């Protein structure tokens, strides 16, 4: 089953089916064994010295496509601040070719992984794409949710964002003054329920 396009009304700790027992609490430690170790091209994934942003995307999600210029800008800015990005594709039937096409078409040269079982989403408490989860250098989950507040619903925006949640978090980390752990509401394409294996 493909993702469905909808708005998440409450960004809880779980995937679309509700809160899984495996979801890491905000501020909690994420086990290194729960995180991907290699990109689709086989190269090792290296965590950032300050933090790692896991960006959950999908080549067919219109909101993920719309965010691509902002993501590219953030990745370029964060590269010199010890913050690395990993792009995660947690959908059914995604192929490496589709990922490479998406990276090329939207200028997103970010290390990417395919995670069709949505296990990583359930661990990090991600329920929709696009979403982000930020893990600091000590392995703590500091933030999960939206990139900013521009979307009211699918195809409906408030106009230019007035609150850039992810940027606030990464700026604080880069400055050495991380904000308290937090989550926000994500608007986008709903993922398959936790524990649903596709691959």
What order do the helices and strands come in, and which of them pair?
Elements (H helix, E strand, L loop, with lengths): L3 E4 L43 E6 L5 H17 L4 E7 L6 H10 L6 E3 L4 H6 L3 E2 L1 E6 L4 E5 L5 E3 L2 E2 L7 H10 L7 E2 L3 E4 L9
Parallel strand pairs: 2-3, 3-4, 7-10
Antiparallel strand pairs: 1-11, 2-6, 5-11, 6-7, 8-9
Report on the architecture of this protein.
The chain has 199 residues and is of the alpha/beta class. It has one domain: Glutaredoxin (3-Layer(aba) Sandwich), CATH 3.40.30. The protein contains four helices and eleven strands; from the N terminus they run ββαβαβαβββββαββ. The chain has helices at 62-78, 96-105, 119-124, 165-174, and strands at residues 4-7, 51-56, 83-89, 112-114, 128-129, 131-136, 141-145, 151-153, 156-157, 182-183, 187-190. The strands form three sheets. The protein has a six-stranded mixed beta sheet, with helices on one face. Strands 1-11-5 form a three-stranded antiparallel beta sheet, with helices on one face. Strand 3, helix 2 and strand 4 (112-114) form a beta-alpha-beta unit. The radius of gyration is 15 Å and the shape is globular. The N and C termini lie close together (12 Å). The model is unreliable at 1-21 (pLDDT under 50).
